[in-house]
TrEMBL record:
It comes from Aquimixticola soesokkakensis. Residues 151-459 form the FAD/NAD(P)-binding domain. The keyword Iron applies. Residues 25-136 form the Dihydroprymidine dehydrogenase domain. Its EC number is 1.4.1.13. It comes from the Bacteria. One of its GO terms (molecular function) is glutamate synthase (NADPH) activity. Keywords: 4Fe-4S, Iron, Iron-sulfur, Metal-binding, Oxidoreductase. InterPro entries: DPD_II, FAD/NAD-bd_sf, FAD/NAD-binding_dom, GltD-like, Helical_ferredxn. SUPFAM superfamilies: alpha-helical ferredoxin (SSF46548), Nucleotide-binding domain (SSF51971). This is Glutamate synthase [NADPH] small chain.
Amino acid sequence: MAKEPMLKFVTVGRDMPTKRSADVRKQDFDEIYAEFAREKADEQASRCSQCGVPYCQSHCPLHNNIPDWLRLTATGRLKEAYEISQATNAFPEICGRICPQDRLCEGNCVIEQSGHGTVTIGSVEKYITDTAWEEGWVEVIKPAVEREETVGIIGSGPGGLAAADRLRRAGLKVTVYERSDRAGGLMMYGIPGFKLEKDVVLRRIEQLEKSGVEFVLNCNVGEDITFDAIRGKHDAVLIATGVYKSRDLQGPGAGAAGIVKAIDYLTCSNRVGFGDTVEEYESGELNAAGKKVVVIGGGDTAMDCVRTAIRQGATSVKCLYRRDRANMPGSQRETQNAEEEGVEFVWLAAPKGFAAAGDSVSGVMVQKMRLGQPDASGRQSPEVIEGADYIEEADLVVKALGFEPEDLPTLWGAEGLDVTRWGTVKADFTSHATAIEGVYACGDIQRGASLVVWAIRDGREAADAMVEYINQAASVAAE
């Protein structure tokens, strides 16, 4: 009888891919984790307990068949593992890199609860698909039947691209409208290379282009083309713009030079990484080199900013967050990586204004906080400690306070496009259909700022609903 390849979590310890030392990795924007070797990936996959109720799968927004592809990896059937992974996720190699596994699949692993250390699901997921690219298993999409109907997608972030992938597999013609000069949305310009190297995104975009998806770049809906014109050109339209309007911070001195938005700061850094000449970087406006940097916020965007500032050569980098470590929304793994690289976290600290020297910021006025009673979300509310204010010196302040939706009905002149009280596009959370017939919405513009993996799920669901809508329209027309 063959030896059981799984259930080795008792004898085999949890192991992550080799992480480059902090001193080395903070000198560049390359990814910090090495790839698993084949033997190590097989070994770590074999730790899966193949439990009867896979909480890793149920806590994954895409409900990826994680136990199945772990078993296939452990038994050397890597191509099948890739096919199972790709069946539920358009971009498993991207999720393997940037998903907060500690809050999703790995954080709910059964063997973690028993004290054996979670299976390294994200690293194995990344390994499977990177190997698939190397081996040529990732193929151009070739629909069984080519159809004449067309779909327009506004936005080329994870939701839009996931929908484009699924719609092309259904044989529909797809055009993606993107206001930037490169496709990819936040994956391209909002996430630093040390978390997601850009060739990983570019090869997926190239795959879609070779599969027949048309990308219209530098196209700002409402200016270069009207929303009604896009509707008139296509049988159905998907709004997948994401949310890009930064939450602002008021208070004394808020208009001083040197106080910048996280999205501007990260976009500039990523453009420089592409070799673009960016005036704001050259002038020092969006460059942390030689500066004392303070980042305000505790989410993943704040982690991206502090780690970018370290790599740009800041003399010091501090992150202010109004709650404590246990209550921060960002990935604990990213917080640890930032600390290793020299970032100092100032917990229970909230800004109330800014100090300035002339027209430029010189510091952040900080209020010390304590945690009081839980709020409606169940998290303890921060309360001000009176008389404990101080100034945190800073030459550059980055506001990473989250994002809100733009006013699309006004920007696009889209009469009938309903929005919620938060400004997100109002759409059904199953079909993603809006109040306008044939118009759908997915990702952050529908659910608010969230994770890439949720946008991928929304994009796939919306694509399926659009196919059904187009099929029904074709059926009625044929009668």
